[in-house]
Specification:
It is built from three helices and four strands. By secondary structure, it is α+β, with helices and mostly antiparallel strands. The longest helix is centred in the last third of the chain and has 18 residues. The chain starts with a helix and ends with a helix.
């Protein structure tokens, strides 16, 4: 019984920050977040080819990507449209990083951003198909 009270107090003290946590809200006037920066280190070369994927409507908002190719390689991916949602803002850099790593649309879904991940993959695959990659 002597340990029950301190355990209860510490449990409540540990849960208070969780209860008070509020994720940051991104505001966008048109309902879409600004395009996420790409992790590409340099600007595309003159011999690069840029292909935009189609707009994919999702429950959270429209998703559209733009793919920059250098030769047969995917050099950069940029989000032209993305939902104004906190999970999307966190997922986009990971989706782009995975795309550049595997050089295809065969990437994993980002946990917490399943809908955006699916829309991203659809737009990306359509852009790759349009280019013939």
């Amino acid at each position: 019984m002597k340990r029950a009270l301190p355990v209860l107090v510490l449990t409540v003290a540990g849960l208070v920050p969780v209860w008070r946590y509020a994720p940051s809200q991104q505001s966008a006037s048109s309902g879409e977040a600004a395009a996420a920066p790409t992790p590409a280190a340099s600007a595309p070369a003159a011999s690069s080819d840029v292909v935009a994927g189609p707009v994919v409507p999702t429950e959270k908002g429209d998703v559209q990507v733009e793919v920059t190719f250098e030769g047969e390689r995917i050099a950069a991916v940029r989000m032209l449209r993305q939902p104004a949602h906190p999970q999307t803002a966190n997922a986009v850099p990971r989706l782009i990083e995975d795309t550049l790593r595997v050089q295809s649309a065969d990437i994993d879904t980002v946990s917490g951003a399943t809908i955006t991940s699916d829309g991203y993959r659809q737009s990306l695959q359509a852009a790759l198909d349009a280019r013939g990659a």
